[in-house]
Automatic annotation (TrEMBL):
NCBIfam families: PRK14140.1 (NF010738)
CDD domains reported for this sequence: GrpE
Entries under PROSITE patterns matching the protein: GRPE
Role summary: Participates actively in the response to hyperosmotic and heat shock by preventing the aggregation of stress-denatured proteins, in association with DnaK and GrpE. It is the nucleotide exchange factor for DnaK and may function as a thermosensor. Unfolded proteins bind initially to DnaJ; upon interaction with the DnaJ-bound protein, DnaK hydrolyzes its bound ATP, resulting in the formation of a stable complex. GrpE releases ADP from DnaK; ATP binding to DnaK triggers the release of the substrate protein, thus completing the reaction cycle.
Name of the featured protein: Protein GrpE
Subunit structure, interactors included: Homodimer.
Top-level division of the source organism's lineage: Bacteria
Gene Ontology molecular function terms on file: adenyl-nucleotide exchange factor activity; protein homodimerization activity; protein-folding chaperone binding; unfolded protein binding
GO-annotated biological processes: protein folding
Protein's cellular compartments: Cytoplasm
Region (Disordered): 1-48
Biased composition (Acidic residues): 10-21
Entry keywords, A to Z: Chaperone, Cytoplasm, Stress response
Length: 186
């Protein structure tokens, strides 16, 4: 009997060991799934992806900033003389008005010739900086270039055509500095 008892105990021990293996095995799978190292690796991978995306956005923002700054610098250089031109335009207008006066005296005529030379030099200097007069009389009215202050009914001109220029307009390169003040035919 002892032998039977001993065998039965051995069988129970063997069954207990098998059950422990079965129990231990699922726990190992659970331990592998919740392994802190794999969670940490996944978390680091996500952080790396987020950092990479942030870096790409930052690089794109920098490139946009650089392009915008370069364009602003180019515009500043292109229109650097705009303030000076705006200051000089009333002077040019006054020169034109002064040169339209009729002079009879010989000494006054030589003075007017000298003023005319100064006026031409001023106009040449403005032209070298890219300042151009806006053509007006006989041209189609363009609200971007002309400022209509009067309308007339003249049969010699077509509809919506500039009849008379009251004040000259100027543009600096492609930018209108001052539009022409004009009379427009209906």
């Amino acid at each position: 009997m002892d032998e039977n008892k001993q065998r039965s105990e051995e069988m129970e021990d063997q069954e207990n060991v098998e059950q422990e293996e079965v129990i231990d095995h699922p726990e190992q799978e659970v331990v592998e799934e919740t392994n802190p190292a794999s969670n940490e690796v996944e978390q680091l991978r996500q952080e790396k992806d987020e950092t990479y995306q942030r870096l790409l956005r930052l690089q794109a923002d920098y490139d946009n900033f650089r392009r915008r700054s370069q364009k602003e610098r180019e515009n500043d250089l292109k229109y650097k003389s705009q303030d000076l031109v705006e200051e000089l335009l009333p002077i040019v207008d006054n020169f034109e008005r002064a040169l339209q006066t009729d002079v009879q005296d010989d000494s006054a005529k030589s003075f007017v010739e000298g003023m005319n030379m100064v006026y031409r030099q001023l106009k040449d200097a403005l032209n070298k900086q890219g300042v151009e007069e806006i053509p007006a009389v006989g041209e189609e009215f363009d609200p971007n270039m002309h400022q209509a202050v009067m309308q007339v009914d003249d049969e010699n001109y077509g509809s919506n055509v500039v009849v008379e220029e009251l004040q000259k307009g100027y543009k600096l390169k492609d930018r209108v500095i001052r539009p022409s003040m004009v009379k427009v035919n209906q």
